[in-house]
Amino acid sequence: MAKHCLLGGVIKFTVAAAAVSGICYLFRDDLKSSKTYQKYDVDEKISKAKSVVKDKTATIKDKAASLKEKAPWTKNDEVATDDIEDAVRDYVEIDTDGIEDKVEDAAEDIIDAAADVVTE
């Protein structure tokens, strides 16, 4: 139920954001010529934000590459697949003799205990 409500909220937000961006796109010329848009130098701030995002993306990619190189599973001393295929595997057999009797006895004990509680 909670997942359904969360998904509905995400869909509503996405539709609302798409509607607002569509309206802004339609009136982009009017918005760019407005006093508020020019007063706060929105174009300059958008270009700064884009450059910051590009710089951070490059930094994150570099860090991810260095972490990938340092990861222990990327070392060249991995075990060869032929060694794994030739390995002898030991299997443990599960002893099933008498398990049914033990389960039946445990079930009878529980039923008796429940009957005693009900009679009290």
Tell me about this structure.
The chain has 120 residues and is mainly alpha-helical. Helix content is 76%, strand content 0%. The radius of gyration is 34 Å and the shape is elongated.
Q: Topology of this protein?
A:
Elements: H1 2-26, H2 28-32, H3 35-39, H4 42-70, H5 81-86, H6 99-119
Primary descriptors:
mainly alpha; 6 helices; 120 residues
Task: Briefly characterize the structure.
The chain has 120 residues and is an all-alpha fold. It is 76% helix and 0% strand.
Described by the principal axes of the CA atoms, the overall outline is elongated
Fraction of residues in helix: over 70%
Spell the H/E element sequence.
Answer: HHHHHH
Quote the average pLDDT.
Answer: 81
Radius of gyration, CA atoms, in whole angstroms: 34 Å
Q: Give the uncertain stretches in residue-range form.
A: none
Strand count, sense and barrel status of the largest sheet are:
none
Number of helices: 6
How far apart lie the N and C ends? 41 Å
The chain-level structural class is mainly alpha
Strand percentage: under 5%
The tally of beta strands, per DSSP, is: 0
